[in-house]
Amino acid sequence: MNEGVSGRRRTILMFFLLVMFGTLALGYLATFHLDTIRRIVQQQMVDAFGQNLTIEDIQVSFFPTPRLTLTDLKILEPEEDRPLFQASQIQLDLGFLSIFQDELLPKGLKIENPEVYLRRDERGQWNVEAILRAQPSRGRGIGAMLSNYTLSMNNGFIQVVDGFRSPQSETLELSQIELAVSNLSDIEPMEVYFSAHLDQEGSHVSLEGTVLDVNKVFAQVVEGENPSGPVAELRAQIELEQSALFQIARFFHIEDQFLVPHARIHAQSQLRYSVGVKGYDLVLSDVILLSDAIDLQGQVSVKGLMAAVPPTISATWSSAPIGIKKIIEWVPADVLSEEIKTAFINHALKGNLEVVSATVTGSNQENGGFGLTGEFRLSNASVDLGPTWGKAERMEGRIFVQPDQVEFKVVTAIYDST
């Protein structure tokens, strides 16, 4: 009996001590430690991003879990009074023991209404490079802010202005950005979901997959040297209006090399972006492109993006039957040889053309150009050969295009010489 009473007393005593300890800990956190936490956060952010950082307010809460809320955070460009990053609110979820340490390591980060302004000058330098390359004080740089935690971003905005190797700066803007990263890291592979709008007309892009070495994304490309940079393997879903397509093509300086359908397109593809021999390489495989006027399947390879010279493009595709007139409108002039122009334009060839398999390769580099090869199936076609030869109608056949010739193999046609 006495042993039972003694056991209950020990239990009550332990419970009482735990309550007292918890009360004292909470009292300490709610009074003396709050300012300490705020100072640690402020100093840690300054160590990572420099003195051009301002935070309007820092709130600390402990229930249901420890949490920091930063309000109206802004980072200015070094030696400039222009914003590089700003957000209305940043919420950091912390481990309970983390709040007793001199360095706060978040478990999760949620950013509301962020705005990012990226600029590259005529020398190829990004405005964010100074922050990324800065020697951190106390051993805590931006890498300490990228330390294996979850990240979510809501209603974001990104503006990219590129003035490198172009007499006029090109601008690309993304809005309504949603971003989710399961394990944020500057060097380790990250699982990423990203979606954004490109204009007010509903152009939209979403990406999902793996990104590696994100800390090198703004590394300067030096001619004659192999660049360093990220590797991305993503699944892309795209809906774009023609204006958004032109905007993307201009930004990457491929507007003269880019086939832009005169219609809204829906596309999906497997995407790989990585360091190449010169600049960066982009490979789009398993491409499916759908629009009101054209359906395509194929793959595209772009080598030398963001380098000092225009990139090299190679595209292979097949398609459902397309109106020949539409093809003439869409394909860049440099792609069509004189033989093809003569056959398709001067002889008034009309009808539908199915791309069995076609390849376009080339570049806008000096002494460069584009070439088209492939096999095409002609259907419901007609051609006017002039008053001497007459007309051929209801043509069915195949067209084989080589770099120096075009071969027609007509299976059936109705010939009218009158």
Topology:
Elements: H1 2-30, H2 32-49, E1 53-61, E2 67-76, E3 83-94, E4 106-112, E5 115-120, H3 129-133, E6 150-162, E7 170-181, E8 190-197, E9 204-212, E10 231-240, H4 242-251, E11 265-275, E12 280-291, E13 295-305, E14 312-319, E15 322-323, H5 324-330, H6 338-346, E16 350-363, E17 370-384, E18 391-402, E19 405-416
Parallel strand pairs: 4-6, 5-6
Antiparallel strand pairs: 1-2, 2-3, 3-4, 3-5, 6-7, 7-8, 8-9, 9-10, 10-11, 11-12, 12-13, 13-14, 14-16, 15-16, 16-17, 17-18, 18-19
Description:
By secondary structure, this protein is an alpha+beta fold. It folds into 2 domains: 2-316, no CATH class; 321-418, no CATH class. Helix content is 19%, strand content 46%. The chain has 6 helices and 19 strands. It has helices at 2-30, 32-49, 129-133, 242-251, 324-330, 338-346; strands spanning 53-61, 67-76, 83-94, 106-112, 115-120, 150-162, 170-181, 190-197, 204-212, 231-240, 265-275, 280-291, 295-305, 312-319, 322-323, 350-363, 370-384, 391-402, 405-416. It has a 19-stranded mixed sheet that branches. A hairpin with a 6-residue loop joins strand 2 (67-76) and strand 3. The N and C termini lie far apart (124 Å).
What's this, in brief?
The chain has helices spanning 2-30, 32-49, 129-133, 242-251, 324-330, 338-346; strands spanning 53-61, 67-76, 83-94, 106-112, 115-120, 150-162, 170-181, 190-197, 204-212, 231-240, 265-275, 280-291, 295-305, 312-319, 322-323, 350-363, 370-384, 391-402, 405-416.
